[in-house]
Write a structure and sequence with these properties.
2 copies of one chain form a homodimer. The longest helix of chain A is centred in the middle third of the chain and has 17 residues. Helices cover 29% and strands 28% of the residues of chain A. The first copy, chain A, has 367 residues and is α+β, with helices and mostly antiparallel strands. The interface between A and B is large, with 42 and 41 residues.
Chain lengths: 367, 367
């Protein structure tokens, strides 16, 4: 989706991806088929690029840093990336700027977890500081007996871990924001997110929150991007705490984000175009919503669906107006793999929900 | 732009284009580098394609017909294309369905023109029946002395010609419409067009016409697509006659059209996505406008600008919100060549016009 927008803007695009038939293969001008830890691939990419960006955060900061040291432009910067990659540093940086986050603590050994749990007595998340996504690398601790198991599961003797209070939240929201090098910042409308098995399932926009919470969340998003000196599109995921309505930052991603896919159809400038504009030094487009409401739903490989991918229900979905489907061109479906998404737009969210009820797109393995 | 939408929808795309570095080269899965009159290129394309379409109408109906005869799917059909390619047949077909067009007549020799002109005494257009675009192939006859010159210029001894009354129009409008095989039809909002030197310069949406004219124009658009049994996105250009407000069809294009580029930012489903959906048998998306108003302006190579292309004014344009630029990736600029376009969207047309006044994007030759 980044490449599609870059092409519209007139840029040529080179990509590094180890998979020969990856979705971007056919739309990039140059495809360097090398691994994400292969120094020579990074060097080749830098040689043909005027600016480098990435679309997932678990990329080698060491190799990127090598390029940055040689004078290559990388956005978001390696400094932003390094801080965000380590969830402990990320939360520490946010706290340093007085941005509210759930209580957290670095963990040296299982004893640290026990002490914290005994003192607080409330559910916790044990988290790998690096490399987690879609719930992977997190372990939920609701009783003292979970501690040893979690420590073992996340391989605490080898991996750096942290603990965090499990927030009793009313809803999970996220904000996409794009920031330019000169500090200009465009904040997108807030999305209300439903996760299933820790994977994003559906996003509703506008979020069902009060005007004052909305204002607070958008201000926090801006502060977060400033905190990391972010250049490009970022996503800030937040909890609205039950009862207190406190807004706590759950996680920051230094990249375009699944919860911002709705911006393609719903906003004046989508998150992908604005990312390209930010990293190439062009002014940002308006993040304003042009439709009344929108729902984005992921098409995810279901239980036991592993094999050559086939889609079901797409033709029926296209019979309904106000639906735009996006199929990523991944040849293999896997359980839990994001294979595509669709976006509904309409005047009101209740109209969108009515349309959503009629759609059932599935990615399954070919028979 | 068609390929970008096809990719989003999950399709693989093969293109036939004689230019190695054509804009679609890097985004198509397969690029067959052969001429538009090369039978082997057409056959190769058909071999790897489930459905074939075209984005300009001056394509060989003979070669396409050969493929259609072999059972390959082509949309719009060769029958639609053949009738539209010949302006005399096109107008005749429209008239046969009681769709109003300017008065016209087939021309066998210069004498026919003289007779018609003497009888009517009003300005005429002498037109090549085939192959014209952007005003090329048209000759304006305002006095009897222009007749011999026009006949010579358009090479009347070799080319088939026709004459048509020059309509004294209040405005030139166009409508994009997409029709599916089952007859389902989506009609886009009407665009008000300004041409310079017979090349489209700017499009304003909504068109400044009365509700009743709007209704009439949209009904005509639907009838035109039915008349040609059109499958895919078409453009119908019309004149609103001064005084009488009569609506006359000027020209039909069996393809996505420059006056529909605004639909990318302004409509729920753009003309390109709907074209792909129509030719692949998927249901059509809504053509409804999601913004209040829009202006599309072409970036055209200026006088004497021939050479390696460079753009000026883009960075300034990006500083203004509500502007989305599209750069086509053509390496060479030529006088009169369309190099890109930009779209402005806002709540009202007067807001759009204010923004337009601030933008000056140029495609010039590199110094």
């Amino acid at each position: 989706m980044l490449i599609l927008e870059a092409k519209r803007l007139g840029f040529e695009v080179a990509v590094l991806d180890p998979a020969k038939d990856c979705p971007c293969h056919s739309i990039a001008d140059i495809h360097i088929v090398k691994g994400f830890k292969d120094e020579s691939g990074f060097s080749e990419l830098a040689k043909v690029s005027q600016v480098i960006t990435y679309e997932f955060e678990h990329i080698s900061a060491e190799l990127l840093s090598m390029l940055e040291d040689k004078g290559h432009k990388i956005f978001p910067s390696v400094a932003s990336l390094r801080t965000i990659q380590d969830k402990l540093w990320q939360k520490t940086a946010l706290l340093g700027k007085n941005i509210a986050v759930p209580n957290f603590l670095a963990v040296e050994n299982a004893k640290d977890i026990e002490n914290y749990f005994n003192k607080k007595g409330t559910p916790l998340f044990l988290k790998s500081r690096r490399g987690g996504y879609d719930g992977k690398g997190n372990f939920f601790i609701k009783s003292a007996s979970d501690i040893a198991l979690g420590y073992e599961k996340l391989n605490g003797n080898e991996n750096e871990l942290m603990i965090e209070d499990a927030v009793n939240y009313e809803r999970e929201v996220s904000v996409i924001a794009t920031r330019a090098e000169n500090g200009e910042c465009e904040v997108y409308p807030i999305a209300d997110n439903i996760h299933k098995d820790s994977i994003l399932d559906t996003t509703f926009i506008p979020a069902n929150i009060s005007k004052s919470t909305e204002k607070k969340v958008m201000e926090i998003a801006k502060s977060v991007l400033e905190c990391f000196n972010g250049v490009g599109t970022f996503c800030v995921e937040l909890f609205i705490e039950k009862g207190t309505k406190r807004v706590l930052v759950n996680e920051v991603a230094p990249r375009v984000h699944n919860t911002g896919h709705y911006t393609i159809e719903a906003c004046r400038t989508n998150q992908f175009e604005n990312h390209i504009r930010a990293i190439t030094g062009l002014g940002l487009g308006s993040a304003e919503m042009v439709v009344g409401a929108s729902i984005m739903k992921n098409v995810i490989g279901g239980k036991g669906e592993n094999g050559k991918a086939v889609f079901e229900g797409i033709e029926d979905a296209y019979k309904i107006k106000n639906v735009n489907a996006h199929i990523y061109g991944k040849t293999e479906v896997k359980e839990g793999r994001k294979m595509g998404h669709f976006t509904i737009t309409a005047k009101t969210l209740s109209e969108c929900v009515k349309i959503l009820d009629k759609i059932n797109i599935k990615a399954v393995k070919a028979k």
